[in-house]
Amino acid sequence: MNKDPEQQKEMERRLAEEEKLVGHVPVVHQILSDRPDMLLPNLDTSESIFAGEKVLPHKVKHLVALGAAVAGGSPYCIRAQMENARMFGATEDEILEALQIASYMGLTRGQSISFRVFADVFGKEYTE
Fold it and tell me: Which residue segments constitute the domains of the chain, with CATH numbers given?
């Protein structure tokens, strides 16, 4: 595939900025760097969510992202969002509480799904 030199230049600039901000370039971005046409939209989406404090402060955004990472079961995202939350001022206690909430929600999700299936399989009645 032919790479657009402008996209390549923009991608390199943004990856350097990311490395300066968080201390590394995430693996996903390293892999996608072979395809600036795919990486740049990915970076645009990320920046539209995390850049600036439109409504939520950075710390809160990353605590929410941490909860989603826990629910999604991604150890890499958990670490990244934990470090990001910490970088934006989240305390150890705040991060621990976010982990507890996220873990609990994962438990209740499993219960919600599995208990309905159980009820269906064993002919138990329930109301929504």
Answer: 1-51 (1.20.5), 53-128 (1.20.1290.10)
* Alpha helix segments (H runs only) across 51-91: 58-72, 75-87
pLDDT tens digits for range 97-106: 999 999 999 8
Averaged pLDDT score across all residues of the chain = 94
Euclidean distance between CA atoms 46 and 40, whole angstroms: 10
Task: State the number of CA atoms in the 13 A half-sphere of 77 facing the CB.
Answer: 15
pLDDT tens per residue, range 19-51: 998 889 999 999 999 999 999 999 999 999 998
**SS3 at position 25:** coil
**Cβ contacts of 50 within 8 Å, gap of 6 or more:** 58, 61, 62, 65
- How would residue 1 be classed by pLDDT, with cut points 50, 70 and 90? confident
Per DSSP, the three-state class of 33 is: coil
| Of 37, 45, 31, the residue nearest 11 (C-alpha) | 37
